[in-house]
Design a protein that fits this description.
The protein is mainly α and 162 residues long. The protein contains six helices and three strands, in the order αααβαββαα.
């Protein structure tokens, strides 16, 4: 229902020119909304759930963004600035295993890692939950997730999987 409504509203906003919207445009919007909804559900059955609309998840996401993520990004910016000025870098790609099972939680973690300066998610193996991360300063050849991204994995579980 969310995909249908979003598609219809988006189409109507695109054709709206400030006046009234002709009836034929409304009919086209409804038809396209139905087609898009059917296509999305057939491409990814079971993927579209209403849990993303729960207010508690949005509050947890905001708490993550303005709490640990902002703090982690601030620390990483200072660390990268220090490494650029001093030239003390030891870059490389490391492998980290996570316990995340949900594809949305895995995506949230990968994006959080990539948005934090000094790290870049290169690849994610969804089957095993393994992340390959380019890290600007490898301190340990086999680091734990906490070494690289701190509490981001725990927050991905709280926001998406719980």
């Amino acid at each position: 229902m969310v995909i249908f409504l979003a598609s219809v509203i988006m189409y109507l906003l695109l054709v709206w020119s400030g006046g009234s919207i002709p009836l034929n445009e409304v009919v086209i919007a409804i038809a396209l909304g139905g087609i898009i909804t059917y296509a999305c559900r057939s491409w990814s059955p079971g993927l579209y759930r209403m849990t993303a609309l729960r207010p508690d998840r949005w509050f947890k996401l905001l708490a993550f963004i303005f709490g640990p993520f902002l703090w982690g990004m601030t620390k990483a910016n200072f660390d990268v600035a220090y490494r650029v000025i001093t030239g003390k870098i030891n870059p490389g790609i490391v492998r980290v295993q996570t316990s995340l099972k949900n594809v949305y939680a895995m995506t949230m973690l990968a994006n959080s890692i990539t948005l934090t300066p000094g790290t870049l998610t290169v690849e994610v193996d969804q089957e095993s939950g393994t992340y390959y991360i380019h890290w600007i300063n490898i301190k340990n050849v086999e680091p734990s997730g906490k070494d690289i991204y701190g509490s981001f994995e725990d927050w991905a579980k709280k926001v998406v999987e719980e």
